[in-house]
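Below sits the subject:

***
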Amino acid sequence: MVEASRTAVVGDLARIVELAQLLRLELVAMKGGELWLRREAWPEPLRDSYANLIDADDTLVVVGTIDDTVIGYGVLVVETLRSGAQLGVITDLFVEPDARAVGIGECMVLQLIAFSEERNCIGIDALALPGHREAKNFFERNAFTARSLTMHRRLDP
């Protein structure tokens, strides 16, 4: 079994969309997931959103594989801050649940980090929903630390 990560190509779009839909199903059920879907998730149609990301110069879309079978994907967008500095932002990082804990996520995050370093980013941000202990632990194992907490109060109409 060979775990790897590579830059996504247009031929990966159908599989990336499948994985993005699985990510949405997983996160929307969690605390903060519904608002994440409305605010941070890439808009529908997903095929168009991810095709644009694959083509963008300031973005890297990767796929994680086991024996050349795509079982995960990740997206990093480089943002320009008001100071002019660059910040890498991981918007998506997902591995099929049955394939977690074998190193695919680490392969992808290392590729996203390298992309950020090549673009002289001052750091990389990634979002983990409250209560998503698995995501928080993953990022902490990969040297990410919390730099802020977003507090939210729901207002019912």
The chain has one domain: 3-141. The longest strand covers residues 69-80. The radius of gyration is 15 Å. The beta strands are 3-7, 59-66, 69-80, 86-95, 124-126.
